[in-house]
Amino acid sequence: MPCPLRRLLHYLPVPEQALPPPGVRVSVPFGRREVVGIVVRIDASTDQDAHKLRPLSAVLDQAPLLDAALLECYLWASQYYLYPIGLALQTSLPPALREGKPLPDLRPLHWQLRVPPEALPRLRSARQQEALDLLARYHSLSGAELSALLERPAPPLLKALQDKHLVHLVPIEPEATGAPLLKTPALKFNSEQQAVFTALRQSLGAFSCHLLEGITGSGKTEIYLQLIAEVLAKGQQALVLVPEISLTPQTLTRFRERFQREIVAFHSGLTDKERLEGWAKAQSGAAQIVIGTRSAVFTPLCNPGLFIIDEEHDDSYKQQDGFRYGARDLAIWRARQLGLPVLLGSATPSLESLNNALRGRYRLHQLHQRAGVAQTPLLRPVDLRQQTLYEGFSQTLLQAVRRCLERGEQVLIFLNRRGFAPMLRCQHCGWFAECPRCERAYTLHQQPGALRCHHCDAHKPVPPRCEQCGAAELSGEGLGTERSEQRLQLEFPDFPILRIDSDTTRAAGRLHELVQTVQSGIPCVLVGTQMIAKGHHFPKVSLVGVLDADSGLFSADFRAQENLGQLLTQVAGRAGRGDVPGTVLIQTWYPEHPALLRLLHEGYGSFARHLLDERRQGALPPFMHFILLRAEAMQRDLPPRVLGLARHWLAQHPAPGLECFGPMPSPYGKKAGRFRAQLILQAATRQPLQQAGQALAQWLDAQPEARKVRWALDVDPLDFS
Ligand code: ADP
Ligand code: ZN
Ligand code: ZN
Which of 213, 222, 574 to mutate to test the pocket of ligand 1 (most atoms within 8 A of CB)? Predict the structure, then answer.
């Protein structure tokens, strides 16, 4: 049921009708409304009041919409991620299906006779008779075929025949495609790729989980493509998950150029109709390859043979609100259930996956060299001490940019903060402009000029004077991408400066345009946020500059260093992907920081293995598992009070190995006008944590006090803010 119940409801069958099979949609009375529900199970008895059970109103599908395996996957996910099953389905099915609309029949429609040929009447219209005779002779024809045979438009004739109930439209099973699988030939593997490919190919046909740790540009995607070809050749389907930002036309083009088969892509830009059609094509097998972001993990597949999760470390695989599932972990669960291999690929594996690989739960494959001609870039720190800074740019970096542009190459400048400056401060009294709803500094934007809160949607005009002392000396402090862009324009007036962040790419197609300009190869400087760090292939970029690496080194978030290592490595991976060798300059005040040194000298692999040791010693994930209970409310005291009650209840229901921390204010203690607090449940094994989570959810559901706050449970949380 599309409602927040953590249980299933019993209904009686539609009177005088056969029992509907699990997986079909039904229309049911719910309170005073009619809603669309999904049959999960048929039970012979009920724990509800049997006299009050109501019958289903109607069965909406002839065949199950969700097969037994997918239904089971949903049930498991709903239980594991502590989210009501009805809402889980509600938020991940295509909208048209939730509303009860029929699954479209994608088969081509042909005209056929409705009566046996011998029973056909003689018609007065010679033209209608001719059409009827052709259908009797050929059995089944499309409208276009009939028009061609008749040498005149068939539709008016067919309409007349249809009105006489003599012909009808019938969906036709498509013939097995005889077209060759590949449009363009596969590349010839280098020896490293070949070894990995051979091992992976042997694993097809049964469950196994593989981590492909290969530096950026080492040819992971080429391995995916050739493995997919193997799977398609067996008549099976492949599901490829990619991070939100990577599902660029570029990625799709690469797949579409290789395969002469139907590929459906699921991303946020689809219309409801496209989403429904894609879903139906995957389910019917009309599509052989499904590529999609997080929610594509729930795609129905009639004959799956392989799952691939590209950039498996990417945070966008975890849903951050509502149904907070982790698509990577669910994909692995589904692969096990369906008995097929799942391949996780990344240049910068998550510590979770790396740990599983090192402990032998996943098979580890590595690629150390760049494929083709490209060389691995050189990473160098730039010591900011004793340097004059020009809006955050050191002389060293500016000179390197100049040399690069003069050689006709491209530069990429990375800064993970959009806007002009992260703070507007009074030089006289120290006051700074703050969003009252979040109690955090507003970011100063110049194009168009405004103060914008990056934690909620609040914004206001830039004040002409200090709101505390009235002084006119207000200035933007700190760096944002707009500011870097302006400085670069000043320094390099003869070259295009392209800014790529969520402000410049809001308009549809704008990102694609910017990316194409870069790919045209003209010498230019790109400046942007993590949007430029991921996925794109810019062969002419030979220099990458990182303006500020330090915030990740000293954060309170235990995942900050992991994320910094991933980000720097991914940004660095944009350099020297073509035949120009790349250099990466990383500006820092702490060039001797051991973590940074390890990353620069030994690479991400060694850096990550070291972090993993630290996590083990600190009893942090992946050696510890968390459930985060978050509460927020307009009144400051409500969230801690409700969480305090929860903690008290947990203390009365102790579970072995379960520990509880909090309630404490969230790092973002106020957001969009709501005060926020959290309680952390942790255990070294998942089982007691799961049990406590389930019980806690049930208990919270029943607490009147808890209804005064917005609360949510986040299992395996990534975001502790
Ligand atoms: P990754 O996915 O690891 O970043 P890609 O598969 O995108 O790597 O490969 C990087 C570049 O190298 C691409 O331009 C690709 O076409 C090329 N490439 C990959 N494998 C080979 C190969 N065996 N021979 C020549 N070029 C290759
Ligand atoms: Zn002031
Ligand atoms: Zn705000």
Answer: 222
